[in-house]
Amino acid sequence: MKNLLNVPVNIISMGFGRDLRAIPRRMEFEGQQIDFVDNGLSTTIRHGDRIAQILALTDGQRTFRLRSDNHGGSWTLLSIA
Questions:
Q1: CB 3.0 to 4.6 Å from 10: which of 28, 32, 62, 69, for a disulfide?
Q2: What's the sign of the alpha-carbon dihedral 18, 22, 28, 33?
Q3: Residues 75 and 67: beta-carbon distance below 8 Å
Q4: Are 6 and 63 in contact (CB under 8 A)?
């Protein structure tokens, strides 16, 4: 079951992947802090001069899809599966 949300979230802590790409490590959502233990697939989408990054992250039980606008740390929670 997948919950489609498309809501802004607050990323509390960031880390870096092997390619030195910034990856969220902790997120605040609905008053809870969620710690990500692993990251899955990621992709970069270009539309004209705009670039967005979409990541799949897990807390060990659920998978969260997040989108970054790559313009100052604005993150959107797309779905929870």
A1: 28
A2: positive
A3: yes
A4: no
Full residue range of the structural domain in which residue 52 is found: 3-80
pLDDT value for 40: 81
Q: How would you class 50 by CB atoms within 10 Å of its CB: exposed for 0-12, middle for 13-18, buried for 19 or more?
A: exposed
Q: How many domains does the chain have?
A: 1
Residue pLDDT, tens place only, 16-71 = 877 787 889 999 999 999 999 988 888 888 888 888 889 999 999 999 999 998 77
End-to-end CA distance of the chain: 6
- Report which residue type is found at 34: I
- Please, what's the largest Cα pairwise distance for the chain? 36
- Which stretches within 28-67 are classed as H helix? none
